[in-house]
Design a protein that fits this description.
With 135 residues, the chain is mainly alpha-helical. The chain contains five helices and no strands. The longest helix has 31 residues, at 77-107. The chain is elongated.
Length: 135
């Protein structure tokens, strides 16, 4: 499954780079005052939703952190690796969603705690990197 690991690395890189690039653009926009802040309640709700998604990513990451046991029809490791990859991509997608939503919340005037939420989401992406999880 060397090809599968390569695909996993490409997917992981794209899902990690997207929020980083978005945060860089948002930082420039916010520092130049080019953003109209949203009502504080909207930014706060978006940040809390991002925190909830990050919690879901943590659960998905914990579940995908251990290799799955062979299923009834698994003759080789390839089927198990496909299942493990599917769980990893789910955890990555949740972490990416949390980072993006926290970024939008911060851009619209959310507090500094949204930066911490996004940092936690990006850390989750690093911890669940394909090299560490797929063998």
């Amino acid at each position: 499954m060397h090809d599968g690991r390569r695909q996993a690395r490409v997917i992981h890189l794209a899902m990690s780079a997207g929020p980083l690039i978005m945060w860089a653009v948002f930082a420039v926009l916010r520092s130049r005052g080019l953003v109209m802040p949203a009502p504080p309640l909207v930014a706060r709700i978006m940040g809390l939703v991002a925190l909830g998604i990050l919690a879901g990513a943590g659960v998905a990451g914990a579940v995908s952190g251990s290799r799955s046991a062979p299923g009834p029809g698994d003759d080789d490791d390839e089927a198990r690796q496909r299942r493990d990859l599917a769980r990893l991509v789910t955890a990555w997608a949740l972490a990416e969603a949390a980072a993006v939503l926290a970024g939008v919340s911060w851009l619209l005037g959310g507090g500094g705690w949204t930066v911490v939420v996004a940092g936690g989401a990006l850390l989750m992406l690093v911890v669940n990197a394909p090299g560490r999880q797929l063998t």
